[in-house]
């Protein structure tokens, strides 16, 4: 249940005309009172003898009773209270009780013999009511409505529990502005899945990903097809910007522009500038290579490997760095998700876009990010954009799975960080993003891990026994779990490839498992496959790869149905027989 308080009105009759009218887009139906300060106020919606003027005059009486010079210039208090989409439809009686609780909690009409304001609650849709009040009490005093928005939020949390409604996570004022009902109805009429505000926010966020300058930013906005207006000071300095969709027009057929700050708090021009202006020397010490010194990626696959490495390093910072630095990494993780969604193949793009959209809420909190430390992640986002779209197969597709796997752990770390800070909305958003990443990973990983699975199944028994012994030596506490996973075969093939490339498989395993948690992984073996292949510089896609074991490749590269299902339901450990 979401209250939205606005107390800046000056014309009671104007607000009532809107509440009882058809709405800007004919969206209002059966407007009527559900409660009022005295329970007997005239209802222009259902009483043919009552008029808007009657109700307005009744509400404004305490204001009009004051001498003109003492009347508040803006005396109209207004809030809407909206149920969430998955809530049941409440009755008029329930909405009336909710209205009385809201005006009591906010100090508009506290009850208990204290002076209160006059108010009325109007319902013109199934899912919400509007409460209008005039900010002069019956005795001529002003109400104690300080922080009425916060107080309304707190009361709504109690109402949700008592009525068994969806419990909304408490906000902290850092969320992007929600679309208005008029914007939602306009989107429905135009056949849009999202409102213009939401489309613009997503487009601008993607344009920001890894951006290095104002020119770069505005070039990306123009390339995305947006209309742009810049606000320039008399000195010539750029102060801000507005954007619009070419086909989003008002009644005068003019484009509807939105300022960056109205799309999201971190999309104002000053906040965007912070991203690149702080990119000096890497003060966090988290990366061993200066990102600016790295050459531009030669392919999408190279960019995705760099992304996986940057995400790998970032997890440790989020888990153990100071709050300001962790907040910067979390914000930059959002840029990486936006860039990956923009450049990935169609079969993963939907889930990656959903992950980026969900994580947008998790990228902001009251912990102010100390920019500059996040340079490696921002460079990864820049590399992804510069390298261009990736194919869904081959090394591009396999390294996409590798990057998603590493990003999953980074986003999970962000969820834990927000949860520890009691950032309920951000933690929930990060968890939602992680679930979308799981789905994207399945789509990206099936083919490359299927090829590794086939290669691992056809390793000779002595070689498989040797890799199992290496696993038990390096990871004694996890070995039996990994051997029972379908992904063990892919890991065995990877250990064989690493050994053939001159690496110590036991040392690689110890490093890969020891530096980051594995408890949130669906498949520990899958995670270790990507960590080993990234660390050892092994190809992510092994389709058609020639094995050092002559018995391996007879079935290599064939897809595995239902992701690693074993014949007759036997586990990987059972398949090994006496290799234990």
Describe this structure in words.
It is built from 21 helices and eight strands. Helix 14 crosses helix 20 (524-535). Among the domains are: 2-163, BirA Bifunctional Protein, domain 2; 193-277, no CATH class; 447-579, no CATH class. It is elongated. With 580 residues, it is an alpha+beta fold. The protein has helices at 12-20, 52-64, 92-105, 148-163, 181-190, 196-208, 214-223, 260-263, 269-277, 300-320, 323-343, 346-359, 375-387, 394-420, 424-457, 461-474, 479-483, 488-500, 505-514, 524-535, 572-575; strands at residues 2-9, 32-36, 76-82, 118-125, 128-134, 227-232, 238-244, 258-259. The strands form two sheets. Strands 1-3-5-4-2 form a five-stranded antiparallel beta sheet, with helices on both faces. Strands 6-7-8 form a three-stranded antiparallel beta sheet. The two termini are 56 Å apart.
CATH topology of the domain at 2-163: BirA Bifunctional Protein, domain 2
**Which outline best applies?**
elongated
CATH architecture of the domain at 2-163: 2-Layer Sandwich
Low-pLDDT windows of residues: 281-293, 548-580
Which CATH first-tier class of the domain at 2-163 would you pick?
Alpha Beta
Mean pLDDT: 88
Helix/sheet category: alpha+beta
Q: Strand tally, please?
A: 8
List the total number of helices. 21
Largest sheet geometry: 5 strands, antiparallel
Describe the structure in brief.
With 580 residues, this protein is an alpha+beta fold. The chain has 21 helices and eight strands.
Keywords for this entry:
about 575 residues; alpha+beta; BirA Bifunctional Protein, domain 2; five-stranded antiparallel β-sheet; three-stranded antiparallel β-sheet; about 10% strand; elongated; disordered C terminus
